[in-house]
Amino acid sequence: MPFLANSRTLQIEWGHCDPAGIVFYPRYFEMFDASTTALFQRALGMTKYQFLRHYGFAGYPMVDTRSRFLIPTRFGDQVVIETAVTELKRSSFQVLHRLMKDGELAVEGFETRVWVAYDPADPGRIKSQPIPPEVVARLSPA
């Protein structure tokens, strides 16, 4: 079942790169994190700050991630990151990122995230909570 997807274009900057001008691999995880937020902003029609307050939750931390690196990207390259939710569960969800360079798959990223709120019994801790039905509906196919 296809879920909502989002696409964003960005140019690789010098700060993304190692001294050889090739993207330093942790920077892809930064790009993917921003892409997940862009997807939610599109789905919910509000900024991350607004939807954190609106739904009264603490965020969607990463609990598992991995990537496949197929083609290097370099300083000055223009890339497109396609992001989609691939699975929604009660409180967790899977996200797939496909970073394209010149129409070819360069990097693939996989995330598992959990919708969390502050624990009422211990406000210094977080705990999972069900993803609100409205959020599920906005991420799901029409």
Helix content: 10-25%
- Radius of gyration, Cα only, in angstroms? 16 Å
Query: In CATH, what is the class?
Result: Alpha Beta
Major beta-sheet overview: 5 strands, antiparallel
End-to-end Cα distance, whole Å, is 11 Å
SSE string, helices as H and strands as E: EHHEEEEEEH
**What name does CATH use for the topology?**
Thiol Ester Dehydrase, Chain A
| Contiguous runs where pLDDT drops below 50 for at least 5 residues | none
**Number of helical stretches of at least 4 residues:** 3
Instruction: Determine the CATH superfamily.
Output: Hotdog Thioesterase
- Global outline: globular
**Structural class determined from secondary elements:** alpha+beta
Protein architecture, described:
The chain is α+β, with helices and mostly antiparallel strands. It has one domain (about 5-140): Thiol Ester Dehydrase, Chain A (Roll). Helix content is about 25%, strand content about 40%.
Summarize the structure.
The protein contains 3 helices and 7 strands.
Describe the secondary structure blueprint for this structure.
Elements: E1 5-11, H1 26-44, H2 48-55, E2 62-69, E3 78-88, E4 92-101, E5 104-114, E6 116-119, E7 122-128, H3 133-139
Antiparallel strand pairs: 1-3, 2-5, 3-4, 4-5, 6-7
Comma- or semicolon-separated keywords:
Thiol Ester Dehydrase, Chain A, 41% strand, 5-stranded antiparallel beta sheet, two-stranded antiparallel sheet, 24% helix, alpha+beta, 3 helices, 7 strands, 142 residues
